[in-house]
Amino acid sequence: MPVTAAIVHRLTRRTGEQSYSLREEPFDNEEHKSRLLSEIKPLFTRRASKRYGCFADESCTFKGLVMNWMDEGIGFTQFSRKVVEQLAMLMEQQDLETDGYWLFIHEELEAAQRLWITCLKQKEGLLLNSDNDLQDTAYINFSKTGFCACIDLHDINTPDKTRYLTLSFGFGDRPLQGALMEFTGFTNTVDTRADTEQFMALVQDYSESMPEDSGKRYQKEVAEFCMEQSKEGETVNFHTLAELVESIADVPLDTFITERSPQTKEEFIPDPSSLKKYIRYTGRTKEVSISFSNESLGKTISFDPDTNTLTMTELPPSLIKQLKGE
């Protein structure tokens, strides 16, 4: 993954005080730059709550800075410094607290250019030095990575492209979400939940022509395929899915969808939270936690909607032993 440039700035803001430390030059160690991006990309891909969209029509400072940098009006370092300075002003104006290292990465591939902006956190730790002695250290705690934005730079100036800006939020970001979405000028153009639910509703209709067990199994396999695509950060094309997930119906899934609902998108971004119920039913209270495969419903597990009663047979042997006190 070729990294053209990478730089980090520190921004700290507590009520009544504010400070930021701006780096003068981008990093020059190619291995370190690539390592940073190789750590961030999988984290970003696995996040289930990403938001897909573009810049709002109204101008904002962040969009102006991005466009100025792309037009080579300012250099990468100056661009990143100005973004952090504007972020500092935003935190002050809205009385928000933050502490992190803002990483900017320009990734240039053969067929794509991306700008990554993410907030990194550090963790205190110990290391053994060359004298086998312990000493204090601090290192990047990627598991606590906060806000992350990915901008597809090729699509910004393409009028019919409305999905070039992707945002995700991570550790400690809840109080900052609204402010950061406003700061980036983000407008949501993709409803992943609605697209996924519409697609799975068609899959349910399609599977009604199968025996009940086969229909439930097919829904589960389709949902699992979509879930895997989500984990890889890939979209789902229902033509490809129809070829890869085996069906016993008389017509292929994609033919059914095209005839039943021709306006359905051929490709969509799967929403993991909407897929889970087709794989497993789960629920918990303070006292009880239940999880079972969707294929079990109607076989070893039955549900009475009138009394909200769940009846289970073929309990796990380990659970039976516990209940019998063995």
From TrEMBL:
Compartmental location: Cytoplasm, Nucleoid
Keyword S-adenosyl-L-methionine: no
An annotated GO cellular component: bacterial nucleoid
GO molecular function: double-stranded DNA binding; single-stranded RNA binding
Xref: InterPro entries: Nucleoid_associated_NdpA
Keywords noted in UniProt: Cytoplasm
Domain of life: Bacteria
Keyword Cytoplasm in record: yes
One Pfam short name: NA37
Similarity comment: Belongs to the YejK family.
Protein known as: Nucleoid-associated protein
